[in-house]
Specification:
- By secondary structure, this protein is α+β, with helices and mostly antiparallel strands.
- The protein folds into two domains: 128 residues, DNA repair protein Rad52/59/22 (Enolase-like, domain 1, 2-Layer Sandwich); 75 residues, no CATH class.
- 46% of the residues lie in helices and 22% in strands.
- It has seven helices and five strands.
- The strands form two sheets. A three-stranded antiparallel β-sheet has the order 3-4-5.
- Strand 4 and strand 5 form a beta hairpin.
- The radius of gyration is 19 Å and the shape is globular.
Length: 224
Amino acid sequence: MNVYQAINAVQADLARTGIGKDSKNSFDNYMFRGIDAVYNALAPLLAKHGLCVLPRMVARTCEERQSQKGGALFYVTVEAEFDFVSAKDGTKHTVRTFGEAMDRGDKATNKAMSAAYKYAAFQTFAIPTEGDNDADATTHEVKSYRSSATMGSFEDLPPEEQEYISDLAVEVVAMVASQQNEAAWKRVESEHLDDGQKTALWSRLDSKTRSAIKKAGQAMREAA
């Protein structure tokens, strides 16, 4: 079994079960899939299908910021590569992601590394939020659709859009932290977000990131 067959086999198993959003962010009051849930779901499947995931940190940045109460916060961004290697024939595929985290103590780097692993797993294995294998197992009640363009905050978006906007925000912040401001602006513009989504995304970005993206967009428009 080569590496792509092994990845596909893990994808097939995860498609049946998914990983639910069982963890809660108490500050922003939203549900998310924690790193422990990812490890618990992946570990037996990686062993079953002979797939190894080997991390490698490519770059790291650390900034000291101030909390609202005046304390120190350490903001860390890591750029990571993960080698997905088949234990059967040694074939390899490399995935690169970013991870970001804040902490009051010495855990910011650990958290950022965990975030990078989590999103590498999400993107590689296309892990659904939950499994849905039997049409008779679920009954849906249809309600009228309210466009996110009419919604004014992140909390107003549907859960699937919240996850999408959160993931995009993480990616954009990491780009700016790596001084890829033009790439960050292009990334935001390429998504064709409606007004509600843009407002929600903007609320997830810090002032430094917002300013960098605005300046990059203005410079590119003037250059054109």
